Amino acid sequence: MFERILVPLDGSARAELVLSQVGRILRREDAEILLLRVVDIPQPIAGVEVAGAFDIADLRRQAREDAQKYLHDMARRFAGKADKVHGRVAEGPAAQTILDSARKEGVTMIAMTTHGRSGIARWTMGSVAEKVARASNVPLLLVRSFRRSPQGDLEPSSPEEFPFRRILVPVDGSPTSMSIIGSAEKFAQLYNSEVLVLHVRPPYVPPSPLLPGMEAALPVMQPPPLPADKDETTAKAADRFRHAGLKVRRITLEGEAAAEILDLSKVEAVDLIALGTHGRSGMSRWALGSVAERVLRGAEVPLLILRTPSPPSS
Predict the structure, then answer these.
(1) Cα end-to-end distance, the chain, whole Å
(2) What range defines the domain where residue 281 resides?
(3) pLDDT: is 233 or 283 the higher one?
(4) Do 290 and 255 sit in the same domain of this protein?
């Protein structure tokens, strides 16, 4: 997972917050870091005379030179590991260029912040980060550019390394939710984290008395509550983490999945949420499952996401 990490940067201090996290990975693992700077300046249209076309060409050339210098300066932050850090400059729309670069470079993870130069208007992910999250085929580490102050306001995050002492891994028994286990295991081993394996079941609805002959109209009822250690949905994931030598807790809750995940992350002071989710291909590929979407937009801690592409609908 940590063999080849792509780190998109846009020149802002907010985007550079992720460097502290990949720096720790680089010190502990035999990883290679690719720093990517995307230059997005429209090219003149062939055959169409545009005023200032030559100025645009000069602007693009200058932007590439500035990007190269910037990446060189960023690479110098990784003292003693310079041979493992490389810069890449690419041109095009930011999100798609990040995804294309990840595929072309054969990266095993993308690490980026939720917001860069554009800042934040409310507690949601930036448009570039959202698009990458919805379409990346490799694990994505998302670090929040802002955090809650004790007064409840938003303030810029600080650049220190996150300890990742406690990782929350929601599962629902599906192969998609289990797909994140390997990535979460690697993170937990790197940071010696405790892992909380969570299963959120729909609320129990006791059957209501019906007239004879109306039994067929009964909705499918969720079985009554069960202790966490009896929940088979969390057993397989928990065993995987235990076999890796990690401390694990199994938690079973009832309620709406996204809300319970977000609430538990606060109650348990979770440092990272690791989430396996599904995506779609074709025209709908900028989409995620509804639970993942709410967690992505509502979580106030870093996220580790692995999207499993769904087959195209027939």
Answers:
(1) 33
(2) 162-303+310-314
(3) 233
(4) yes
294 to each of 35, 60, 115, how far by Cα in Å? 29, 38, 17
pTM here? 0.82
79 and 228 both lie in a single domain: no
Predicted confidence (pLDDT) per residue in 105-138, tens digit: 999 999 998 865 554 443 344 578 888 988 899 9
- Of 159, 184, 216, the last residue of a domain is 159
pLDDT tens digits, 264-283:
999 999 999 999 987 543 33
Say what angle helices 94-105 and 127-135 make with each other, to 10 degrees. 40
CATH number at residue 149: 3.40.50.620
Is residue 56 domain-resident? no
Tokens of 122: 């409310």
Supply φ then ψ for residue 98, to 5 degrees: -60, -45
In a domain? residue 188? yes
User: Are 247 and 121 part of one and the same domain?
Assistant: no
pLDDT tens digit sequence for 151-181: 555 555 655 667 889 999 999 988 989 999 9
